[in-house]
Amino acid sequence: MKLTILGGGGFRVPLVYEAVATGATGLQVDEIALQDVDAGRLHTIAEVIAGVRERLEAEGRLAHPPQVSATTELREAVTGADFVFSAVRVGGAEARTIDERVALGLGLLGQETIGPGGLAYALRTIPVALEIARTIAEVAPTAWTINFTNPAGIVTEAMRSVLGDRVVGICDTPIGLVRRVGRLLGVDLVAGERGAEVDYVGLNHLGWLRSVTVEGTDRLPGLLADDAALEEIEEARLIGKDWVRADGALPNEYLYYYLHTTAAIERITAAATTRGEFLAKQQGDFYLAAADAIAPGPPVTSASGSASAHPADPTDASCCSSPVELWRSTLHEREATYMAESRDEERREEDVAGGGYQEVALRLMTALATGRRERMILDVGNIAADRQGAPAAERIVPELPADAVLEVLCEVDGTGVRPLPVAPVELGRLGMMSSLRAAERKILEAATTGSRDAAWQGFATHPLVSSPELGAKLLEGYVAGHPQIAELLGAH
Hints:
Blueprint: E1 2-6, H1 13-21, E2 31-35, H2 39-58, E3 67-71, H3 74-78, E4 83-86, H4 92-104, H5 116-139, E5 144-147, H6 152-163, E6 167-169, H7 173-185, E7 197-203, E8 206-214, E9 217-218, H8 220-224, H9 227-231, H10 234-239, H11 241-247, E10 250-251, H12 256-259, H13 261-270, H14 275-293, E11 300-301, E12 307-308, H15 323-336, H16 349-352, H17 357-370, E13 374-381, E14 405-413, E15 416-419, H18 427-449, H19 452-461, H20 468-481, H21 483-488
Parallel strand pairs: 1-2, 1-4, 2-3, 4-5, 5-6
Antiparallel strand pairs: 7-8, 7-14, 8-9, 8-10, 11-12, 13-14, 14-15
């Protein structure tokens, strides 16, 4: 079995290797093909993976280590794949800083996936995501694509136009929320232990856990009434206990940016750096330090056929740590400072170590490959791709378009992914979902047609902007800051 990871030079890729190599779900993967446009980072991550393998072997935890290959060629990496993990960041962390700063300069929220920064990210990413989807359709038509690329909802929606139901979006934040609640109740809610059922509905980074039924009783109202219980739920601490109690639901943590927008902007602007600037420096420093610690190794094949590697002087005193040690230290700092602008306290260790997207992805992959039934919250179409013309009542959320991608609980096995029914969506939540997706769809239109007017409308109508004047200034700033967007929209 071949797994291809696009964005294979990305910082979290060794986590996927570790989960596969230790047989975390019992699935045996024979080959992991890493693909990235940055050959240097690709080589560094391959060296980190080699270090992870050595450590696992020393600890006796190496169950079925896959062969690892690395290339900058998309077609080479994808050909023959059974599964494709797509986790690309167009423009790198440096582009994220532009997404943030343009918005902040106009007094708006500057964040990776929420607000105008998320739209800019989508605008330069969707054309690449569509190229990836077309390549997969051509050289690996039976592969399942698992999309991590943010903003995951609208990027998955774009890829579905090519790959249909064989592309699924994934995010670890909803499952983290459900696990925290399950810990309090002493029930594995995801697995459906003791007849457990959960109602989670929304878009990616805009969703709510609305009921938690165990043995026929909804336990959520009791949790919401209990301050001590809410203190153990990270999302309730972020958003506010009184608010979640009044709302009657537990929100995805990203609702913080919608419900506390002014506070978020103030905290971000008061910090020395934005999150993107922090990560750009942190990860840049890691890749440089790791490259210094790496002895000359096998080159990575680049798209031009040339070789790339990072030779290091083994006598250099700066080579004080192995790449894998540097990586682990940097990873913990990264996870511990996640959404730091939303917190008055350090992140709790149980939330830092609460599992991640690699575990969710591997469980999804295992269910599809082996037929072993799983339940998980995924980003899927409002109705199956081959049933777009069915009556609206048969959609997950009848009020939303048939081809909209929603985030809901699904059942997965060897036959595919089946969304489970949800209760009718309340008007306020439906309004938030509709206005956000309408703005994102304008960005999708701009990304596929090159329309400046569509891009302007997308930025202007986002619920955290709501201004044609600001929308025009955002567009001007992103065109100036991002060559990909300038080229797409024909700016000179």
